[in-house]
Design a protein that fits this description.
Layout: E1 5-11, H1 15-26, E2 34-41, H2 44-54, E3 60-65, H3 75-88, E4 93-96, E5 102-103, H4 107-118, E6 122-130, H5 148-160, E7 170-171, E8 188-191, H6 192-196, H7 206-210, H8 215-225, E9 230-241
Parallel strand pairs: 1-2, 1-4, 2-3, 6-9
Antiparallel strand pairs: 4-8, 5-9, 6-7, 6-8
Length: about 270
Amino acid sequence: MNDTITVLTVTRQRPELLQRAIRSVNQQDYAGKVHHLILIDDCMDTYAMLTQYHSTNNNLSCFLRARSSIEASGPEHLAKLRNLMGRMAETQWICFLDDDNEYESHHLRKLVECAHQTNSLAVHSWMQVFNFDGTPYLQQRWPWCRDEEEGKLRYRELASRGMIAPGSNVIKDGINNLPYRCVDTSEWLIDRELFLHNQMSTSFSYEEWVTNKAEDDKLQMQLLAAKVPIVCNKVVSLKYYLGGYSTNHDGQYAHSQTWKWQSTETQC
């Protein structure tokens, strides 16, 4: 199996975390061609680092994009950039990797194997969740809820479904978990042509902001609405680190983006 894959990463103002993501792509044991396409969202420090790095890595390309004065961080902006990168890719498959996450070495290989075995054009993995410092996240609170009590309630609901379990940091994402949980963006392997016909929505409502529904939720709903057969390979191969805009509710992480409703002033 030598299907070609492009891993798509959007990054902004956190080159140290990005290097971890890059290493995880470089360490894939997949035998086919893998290209890592990185879009730098208006950050010269990251561009300087990647320009130097690219000279020794022919499988990596980076593009620097300037932000306009009206662009703000959040899922609308990120969805627009992910769609742009999907159009830029030239391979059969695309994957996403957030700049603060990383793949296990078998991630891409297991996804492609599943796609071939099931003839599916959209497959995904499971993930482990870690605190920002790298320790396993074991709190019995759903970290994507803005409210503490709501987070505890949601955790109990998902545990009752077998999606999570006390004492474990594994999250078993899947379409059967709706409406409680979607498939994280970084877990997907999607046929590029399929994605181009089902690009991420760039429109979000106030209710979606309140419930923290981001672009990955929208992507899954679009694929389901299009009646795309979706398959999970049931392999835990994504390492997801908390502290991004969807989990930095109290603003404790200086590196993190902040999604503010109807605000043009955000942390990035």
